[in-house]
Amino acid sequence: MPEIRRHVAVLVNPVAGRGAGEAQGLAAVARLRERGVEARDYEGTDAADTVRLAAKAIEAEPDVLAVVGGEGTLASVLLPVLESGVALALLGGGTGNDLARAHGIPADPVGAADVILDGRRRRVDTGTITADDGTVRHFLTIVCAGFDSRVAERTNRMTWPRGAARYVVAKYLEAIGLRTFDYVLLTDGDRLERPGHLVAVGLTPYYGGGTPICPDADPADGLLDVTLVGPTGRRGLVTLDPLIQKGQHLSHPLVTSARAASVRLEAPAGLVAYADGERVGPLPLTVAAHRERLTLCVP
């Protein structure tokens, strides 16, 4: 059982989980205090305020920074976490919770709070995405560009319907106009040119709330797993989807997979990438894995 000498800082993104973040933060803080831990809560008013409060929390030198929020929130505070070396804990609260899923961390805040005290510390990989203008963004799960990123773009533009139904409608509309992209992937010096509907580059297996698009990804091997789904058309994509949901698609003849420490993604102008469920920007981009840079609280 890890010893807490100072305190646990609990950082809450109140808009996480469609507004459920505040309640989950209160539950986690209550559990930690119930178990005798000094838990200091930091709750922002919005995502930007959450980033500011993360720096403030880290300045107080906690043993653990525990975050209530999704992968987007985690990625936004990752740089100061890495610079400080503080251990990071996941307390749920996101929409997808794919990083927690990859490490077997409970989605409920009480169970996740217990992991801080009863679990262990594991060194895991992080990733960077570098644009051609030199802009660098950190990520923790998967970078995608193609069908899925276009669905996300469409979802963000839509005002109706609300909730999860909006994503379903966006996915259906995008499938109607399904596009094929001429990808160029440079992986550790090897060049791969192949048309396809989507490409995913992952540190961990899951994205989109549990889809194992990179099923064999190891979060501590210092490598990226690449999955490229080749041109198959709407009917073929529908047929392939059940295999993807089960993580059984890598052996399909239309799927190309690779593993590398860095990957440069190129595609026709206008294709936008997403990472950790958040918009990154247009390709080309260079994605790199950084081995065991982050200390994570895991079961």
Automatic annotation (TrEMBL):
Cofactor dependence: Mg(2+)
Pfam families: DAGK_cat (PF00781), YegS_C (PF19279)
BP terms from Gene Ontology: phospholipid biosynthetic process
Origin superkingdom: Bacteria
Limits of the DAGKc domain: 3-133
CC annotations in GO: plasma membrane
InterPro entries cross-referenced by the UniProt entry: ATP-NAD_kinase_N, Diacylglycerol_kinase_cat_dom, Lipid_Phosphate_FormReg, NAD/diacylglycerol_kinase_sf, YegS/DAGK_C
Keyword Lipid metabolism belongs to the record: yes
GO molecular function terms listed in the Swiss-Prot or TrEMBL record: ATP binding; ATP-dependent diacylglycerol kinase activity
Keywords, in A-Z order: ATP-binding, Kinase, Lipid biosynthesis, Lipid metabolism, Nucleotide-binding, Phospholipid biosynthesis, Phospholipid metabolism, Transferase
Family that this chain belongs to: Belongs to the diacylglycerol/lipid kinase family.
The protein's name: DAGKc domain-containing protein
Species in which this protein is naturally found: Antribacter soli
